[in-house]
Write a structure and sequence with these properties.
Layout (H helix, E strand, L loop, with lengths): L2 H35 L5 H8 L3 H29 L2 H21 L3 H15 L2 H12 L2 H36 L2 E2 L3 E2 L1 H10 L1 H12 L21 H10 L1 H33 L3 H32 L5 H22 L3 H29 L5 H30 L7 H20 L2 H12 L4
Antiparallel strand pairs: 1-2
Helix pairs in contact: 1-4, 1-6, 1-7, 1-9, 3-5, 3-15, 4-5, 4-6, 4-8, 4-9, 6-15, 7-8, 7-12, 7-14, 10-11, 11-12, 11-14, 11-15, 11-16, 11-17, 12-14, 13-14, 13-16, 14-15, 15-16
């Protein structure tokens, strides 16, 4: 075999490993969002059993998860920049799966609170390490679509949480719960059922995935330099604050749209239109699977094409366009809450906010040297979770309890939060479109 043939065969093998890695990480993201999101479909039975208000359930859905995700996300990102990322991903999957089962075994607010914190800590390990792994397995020309597919997998998980969660809950209602020596109530049994598959995936990743060589470092020296410590990362962010400030801050505000929508969209359909959990899960889940999956995939392809054509700020432009879509459909939902109009608006919002979810990781991975990718990705996830998940569902819950009271009040509170957040996030991100042009031209290799 000639040298050229050997290199071609090696490249094909690398390509296979890259797509296999993407498939497993995407499956992990599906399970992550399934385990995280299924609680939104179980709001009413959990409230009834544990005696919670909307604010109380919102804390479980959002703030509790976000706080512990943030506390552990950056340290895990630092670890992912220095150690074996495959092991971090596998351990994270195992932890959140066990704690999801723990949600199903909870019999009080305190025990459910504890289990949700465990889910948050486990899930904080996935995305920073996954983005870094994908950056070292895929070329810059294909990275956008790879991250787009990975992001779409998370949306699929959200859709499956509603589709599968609705079916599982209905099944366990018919069965009167689940007998495991004592009777689990239907909502508890649903948590147990969605939590168990992750344990198998954690083992599969540990056994079949290898750690790729790191590429794109500022310094080839692996240990003992500023790039590998926290001070070096902070100095890099400070030097590039014109990009990372608006990008990370605006991303958190824009994530209020997605997390408020996913957390309260199903409840709004039940309260305003009288749909059952099974009906909501089927139709809302289908919207997430179709339109939510198209958002990051098409967004990733658009980012690749813009970057390849010389628009180095392509991911920022895609983010701003997606925010505009969310704003328009949120306003339409505020003006017309009829069922047909609601389904159309839900489809548009699902497409827009999931496209946003892909644009920011693509921008970070393209603009950031290898030494800092996982940490800055972790910071973006901290912003998304602390601001988006921590504030978004809570805002809607507070408005439901204290401003737009009554069963149908959510028809105003939810779209109002979505519209204001989309507009504010757009305005914060806007300055980054110019700064990113210079930075990208300095760091992006030819594609």
């Amino acid at each position: 075999m000639s040298a050229a043939e050997f290199q071609s065969a090696e490249a094909r093998q690398d390509d296979k490993r890259a797509w296999y890695l993407l498939a497993l990480l995407s499956l992990a993201f599906i399970l992550s969002m399934l385990d995280r999101t299924v609680i939104s479909l179980l709001v009413e039975p959990i409230k009834a059993d544990l005696g919670l208000t909307d604010t109380g359930i919102a804390l479980l859905q959002g703030a509790t998860f976000a706080i512990f995700y943030a506390l552990t996300g950056v340290p895990i990102g630092w670890l992912a920049d220095r150690s074996n990322r495959r092991n971090i991903v596998s351990a994270g999957i195992g932890l959140w799966s066990v704690m999801t089962v723990g949600c199903g075994l909870a019999t009080s607010y305190a025990t459910l609170f504890f289990a949700r914190t465990g889910v948050a800590v486990g899930e904080a390990a996935l995305n920073p390490a996954a983005y870094s792994l994908l950056s070292d397995r895929f070329s810059k020309a294909k990275l956008g679509r790879a991250i787009g597919i990975f992001t779409a997998a998370g949306v699929v998980g959200t859709g499956l949480a509603l589709l599968i969660g609705g079916k599982l809950y209905s099944y366990f209602v018919l069965q009167g719960g689940l007998d495991i020596g004592w009777i689990l109530k239907p909502w508890q049994a649903t948590f147990v059922a969605v939590g168990l598959p992750g344990l198998i995936l954690a083992l599969l990743i540990m056994v079949t995935v290898s750690e790729p060589q790191r590429t794109g470092r500022i310094s080839q020296q692996q240990d003992g330099n500023d790039a590998d410590n926290s001070a070096g990362a902070l100095a890099f962010i400070k030097a590039n604050r014109a990009i990372y400030g608006p990008l990370l801050g605006g991303y958190g505000i824009l994530c209020i749209v997605g997390y408020a929508f996913v957390s309260w969209g199903p409840a709004s359909l039940g309260r305003v239109h009288g749909l059952s959990p099974s009906e909501i899960g089927g139709k809302f889940g289908l919207i997430m699977l179709i339109f939510g999956s198209l958002g990051p995939i098409l967004g990733g392809i658009a980012c690749d094409r813009l970057v390849k054509s010389g628009r180095n700020n392509g991911p920022i432009l895609c983010l701003l366009f997606a925010a505009t879509i969310c704003l328009l459909f949120a306003v339409s939902l505020l003006l017309n809450s009829g069922l047909t109009a609601t389904w159309i608006a839900y489809a548009g919002i699902a497409f827009g906010f999931t496209a946003m979810l892909a644009s920011v990781p693509i921008a970070i991975q393209l603009l950031t040297p290898s030494e800092f990718r996982a940490r800055i990705a972790a910071l973006s996830l901290v912003s998304a979770n602390v601001i988006g998940l921590g504030i978004g569902p809570l805002l809607v819950g507070l408005l439901n309890d204290y401003v737009f009271t009554g069963k149908a009040g959510i028809a105003t509170s939810l779209p109002l939060v979505l519209a204001i957040s989309a507009m504010a996030g757009f305005m914060i991100v806007w300055p980054a479109r110019r700064a990113s042009v210079v930075a990208a031209s300095e760091r992006l290799p030819a594609v």
